């Protein structure tokens, strides 16, 4: 509704400008540039020339100028709407860039702490395995250690994937629905699987 009201206001302003400003201005220009002011429509004075611009005999010219100025007003409203739309788009782009920059910084900070903890877990697991070597331990103890190492490695791979640009592009327009969260989780798992498959193929 605001879009149409802006067009209406600008068009009406153009119509009124044509009647009250443009036409009298043309009459003044004609009056001052005419070599024989006695033959100027409305008489020989400035005021009569201005008054003659609003007479019924000048109605065709008044309507023509009013229509022309109305068209200019309508086109001006389109230009204003276009500039407003571009300004909104530019603001949205700047806001997205700011959000993505903040997200990258946040991921960098989180990655630093989580990767450090992952390295500590992996190192502690190796030390624990070396200390208990030769001891009589439950059968599932080694599997438990392997599970811890695999989960730590997976966390490291997830953090590395989250710092990639294609993941940030997926998150950029993401909503908060559970379906979207599941979709992003599957995307991460697929990327990890492809990395593992590539590593196995090279080995």
Written account of the structure:
The protein has 203 residues and is mainly α. It has 2 domains: 2-91, no CATH class; 103-202. Helices cover 82% and strands 0% of the residues. Helix 3 (59-131) runs antiparallel to helix 4. The longest helix is centred in the middle third of the chain and has 73 residues, at 59-131. The radius of gyration is 38 Å and the shape is rod-shaped. The mean pLDDT is 76.
Overall shape: it is: rod-shaped
Mean pLDDT: 76
Strand element count? 0
Q: Please indicate the count of domains.
A: 2
Element layout with pairings:
Layout: H1 2-33, H2 46-52, H3 59-131, H4 141-162, H5 165-172, H6 178-202
Short account of what is shown:
With 203 residues, this protein is an all-alpha fold. It has helices spanning 2-33, 46-52, 59-131, 141-162, 165-172, 178-202.
Question: Which key terms come to mind for this protein?
Answer:
single chain, 203 residues, mainly alpha, 82% helix
